[in-house]
Amino acid sequence: MTFTDLAIDPDMVDALASKGILEPFPIQTQTIPLALAGQDIIGQAKTGTGKTFGFGLPIIQRIGLDPAPGVKVLVVVPTRELCVQVADDLEVATANRATKIVSIYGGKAYEGQVEQLKAGAQIVVGTPGRLLDLAGQRLLNLKEVQEVVLDEADKMLDLGFLSDIEKIFQQVPATRHTMLFSATMPGPIVALARRFMSKPIHIRATDPDEGLTQANIKHVVYRAHSLDKDEVIARILQAEGRGKTVVFTRTKRAAAKLVEELNDRGFNAAAVHGDLNQEQRERAMAAFKAGKKDILIATDVAARGIDVNDVTHVINHTVPDDHDTYLHRAGRTGRAGKTGIAVTFVDWDDLHKWALINRALDMGQPEPVETYSSSPHLFTDLDIPAGTKGRLRATSLSAVKAGSAGTRERTGGPQGDRDRGRGRGRGDAPVRTSGEPSATGRGAAQAPDAATPAGEATGEAPRKRSRNRRRRPAGDSSSQPQG
Questions:
Q1: pTM over 0.70
Q2: Cα end-to-end span (Å), the chain
Q3: Cα R_g (the chain), whole angstroms
Q4: Which of 125, 127, 107, 129 shows the shortest CA–CA distance to 116?
């Protein structure tokens, strides 16, 4: 089965092929023919199985090769990160068309979004709050909308966006084509969704013998101790075959602390959490997708916007709150048919919570085994080379930096530098190898001999010695010039 077999226009088939997307996933083969015919759909599939193209290709094709200016398609998503990701995917599909796409979300200036709307964008991907904001200011006209999509619909309804969704539906034409897509779709959510749709067909693209979790993801669960978690994570990050990795934390503070700790240990990590502004979060996501950063520390606010096919490992710093959250976190790996590993740390107080998740997903996991950074089974379970420690050696650190496309960023956080009292400079942090001159940064901080005075190791002038020298008599020959 190919996209051509599904009656997708040749220009979009070519656009997908240029990105290596040649064969449709099950949710796409089931959805596309019905959507092209104008059938309302509730589409359910596990995350990472191609839901975006499942609704995206039909709506792009239905509005024509060269649609008139004005909003014809409205895609509503729950988070800023998912908004950007969906818009990016639709841009791929429309590469050979005149169709214009704009992403509308809060935390970013109005001007650029409004300019794109005035320029005649035909497809709008947005979050409920900013959509209603612009519509209320009459900057967003929804009266010509033909296609409406709710992506991650269960999350929007669960998060209390129902009233906002109702207001949005009141502003679009009563005659329209509507689709809802999500990885999970509990009965009550389906009942609410049906209020906005006309005789929808419910599609489930799952294998009944596979269980709720993806078969190509290996799930590993450990009972870990909080003081040892950073060391365990640092060793997991050196496992054989480890590619891009997402680490989920429960709080923003934990995310900020962990990214600083990992960078201080020589890794190449970025963070996405609520204390960062939108521009900072977008930069972090872009660096992660481009491979400039290979570790992303995230809170759940960002989970549904991480759509990167080459994530090999997901690490849950703490147990997720429920089985749906676990599914979405673990679903960041094993995407597009690839294999992945999901590692979960269970605190003593969270054993009951993990038991509920294990039962709800019918995972059949044994009771989490107590695990330390030195536990032999940690190394064998996750293919970690024997003797691995939680801090990258100089040679490993050099390789990490060389593989970061020449990015020149400090590897250590500023607070970490101050805490350790090391003389790190504010600029780049090259690794010092034997025979190289002393320099500021991580290598210089670790290199000085113990007998070397701290001031000389950091390149600071010994000011106190200068003051003593000025107080000596002019004829004292013991004073030596200082460069």
A1: no
A2: 75
A3: 27
A4: 125
Cβ proximity of 357 and 213 under 8 Å:
no
Place of tokens 């009942």: 191
Q: Using an 8 Å Cβ cutoff, are 96 and 15 in contact? A: yes
- Side chain identity, residue 200: P
- Paired strand residues for 217: 340
409 in Cβ contact with 294 (< 8 Å): no
Interhelix angle for 51-62 vs 10-17, to 10°?
A: 150
8's tokens? 């997708």
Could you report the per-residue pLDDT of 97-131, keeping only the tens digit for each?
999 999 999 988 999 999 999 999 999 999 999 99
Provide the 8-state DSSP code for 391. Answer: S
Q: Give the number of other CB atoms < 10 A from CB of residue 452.
A: 12
Going by C-alpha positions, the residue among 124, 90, 122 that lies closest to residue 104 is 124
Q: Give the closest residue to 308 by CA, choosing from 48, 42, 30, 95.
A: 48
For residue 341, give the amino acid letter. Answer: I
Strand pairing partners for 295? 245, 269
370 and 354 Cβ atoms separated by less than 8 Å? no
Residue 475: both structure tokens together? 């004829």
Identify the CA nearest to 200 among candidates 178, 184, 183, 185.
178
Rounded CA separation 49/183 (Å): 9
The answer to whether the CB of 298 falls within 8 A of the CB of 272 is: yes
Taking each helix axis as running N to C, give the angle between helix 128-136 and helix 110-118, from 0 to 180 degrees, rounded to the nearest 10: 70
Q: Which of 392, 474, 397, 389 is nearest to 428 (CA)?
A: 397
| pLDDT one-digit tens code per residue, 11-50 | 999 999 999 999 998 889 999 999 999 999 998 876 667 8
| Burial classification of residue 228, based on how many CB atoms lie within 10 Å of its CB (0-12 exposed, 13-18 middle, 19 or more buried) | middle
Q: Domains in the chain, start-ordered, CATH in brackets?
A: 10-204 (3.40.50.300), 217-381 (3.40.50.300)
Buried b (16+ CB within 10 A) or exposed e, 395-424: eebbebbeebeeeeebbbbeebbeeeebbb
388 in Cβ contact with 379 (< 8 Å) = yes
In angstroms, the CA 93 to CA 11 distance is 9
**301-328 burial code (b ≥16 CB/10 A, e <16):** bbbbbbbbeebbbbbbbbbbeebbbbbb
